[in-house]
Amino acid sequence: MQISRPRSVLLAGAVAVTLSATALPAAFAAPSSTAVISEVYGGGGNSGATLTRDFIELANAGSSAYDLSGFSVQYLPGSPSAGSLWQVSALTGAVAPGGRYLVAQAAGTGGTVALPTPDATGTVAMSATSGTVALVSGTTPLTCKTAADCAADTRIVDLVGYGSAVVREGSGPVTGTSATASVARAASLADTDDNAADLSAGAPTPVNAAGETSGGAGPGDPGNPTEPGTVRVHDIQGTTRVSPLDGQSVTGVPGIVTGVRTSGSRGFWIQDATPDADPRTGEGVFVYTGSAAPAVAVGDSVLVSGKVDEYYPSATTQSVTEITAPRVTVLSSGNALPAPVVLDAASVPDAYVPSADGASVDALALDPATYALDLYESLEGTRVEIADTRVTGATTAYHEVWVTIKPNENPTRRGGTLYSSYTDQNTGRIKVMSLDATRPIPVANVGDVLSGTTTGVLDYDSFGGYNLQATALGTLTDHHLRREVTRKQKGKELAVATYNVENLDALDEQGKFDTLAAGVAVNLSSPDIVSLEEIQDDNGAVNDGTVGSDATLKRFTDAIVAAGGPQYAWRYIAPENGKDGGEPGGNIRNVFLFNPERVDFVDRPGGDATTAVTAVETKKGVTLSASPGRIAPTSDAWNDSRKPLVGEFRFHGKPVFVIGNHFASKGGDQPLHGRYQEPTRSSETKRVKQATEVNTFVKSLLAADKSARVITLGDLNDFAFSPTMGALTGGKALKPLITTLPKNEQYSYVYEGNSQTLDHILLSPGFRRFDYDVVHINAEFADQASDHDPQIVRVDVNAPDHGHH
Question: pTM, whole model, 2 decimals?
Answer without folding.
Answer: 0.75
